[in-house]
Amino acid sequence: MAWVGYPYYWYYPFDLYYLMPMMFQWMIIPYYYMIYLEVFRAAIDAWKKALESISKSTVSVSTA
What we know:
Blueprint: H1 16-58
């Protein structure tokens, strides 16, 4: 025994108003994540350079 309305939705044609935004999202989502990862990498590089400059500035240079 099937639920009410269960076998009927398989016979509907594809809903283009649903599929078009979904395809657009599948095209945009990878670029969004790549941009997010690039921003994350840039932040890590900025922190690395800042910490390296702090460590270089704290080292005392003796010319004796």
